Amino acid sequence: xxxxxxxxxxxxxxxxxxxxxxxxxxxxxxxxxxxxxxxxxxxxxxxxxxxxxxxxxxxxxxxxxxxxxxxxxxxxxxxxxxxxxxxxxxxxxxxxxxxxxxxxxxxxxxxxxxxxxxxxxxxxxxxxxxxxxxxxxxxxxxxxxxxxxxxxxxxxxxxxxxxxxxxxxxxxxxxxxxxxxxxxxxxxxxxxxxxxxxxxxxxxxxxxxxxxxxxxxxxxxxxxxxxxxxxxxxxxxxxxxxxxxxxxxxxx
Length: 252
Fold this sequence. Notes:
- By secondary structure, this protein is mainly α.
- Helix content is about 80%, strand content about 0%.
- The chain has one domain: MetI-like fold.
- The radius of gyration is 21 Å and the shape is globular.
């Protein structure tokens, strides 16, 4: 018990340190300056768009992987793991060569008067690439936890595949999907490595922390770190509580 408590406190050490090294006056001074909250707005907007993209694009992939309906499933899974294991800084560098202004994709985007570098679009792209593997793996686990026999029984009763998914699969997997989406949200909120390469502007919260640290030092960056934690952590914690209660009800 004592050893577990020591490990738990140690893991929370950075959060405890933040709370003990920041003052209300420092928060007020930093966050009331002109334009101080714009990075927060940028992070919230880009995070919301990122979650929408993940939900629409990656959910079908996760469902098919969970049901083994894709050929050579291990290759698909290995691709997801490779994207998860790539260092974020490397992701940013490679995205420049994939969607930068002098690439075929970048030129195609340019015809739409858009750019995938140093724009809001670039920020969303970087956040999607940093958070997508986390969502896909979490959503796969959520779908895998749904008993396929329940889907088969619904199909035998005459429900079409989409109706089975909407009325059986999705409701049962919803707590796990919420957890996966919440983890992706936290990952997107904290995305830095890829962002600093491909989307230095506009500033989100991680880049605001970095630039403040470079310009005025450690102490002045702490208020933005606190804001980032307040924005990133509640959703995963709420999703975890919901998922835990849902598992408890099923066992009961």
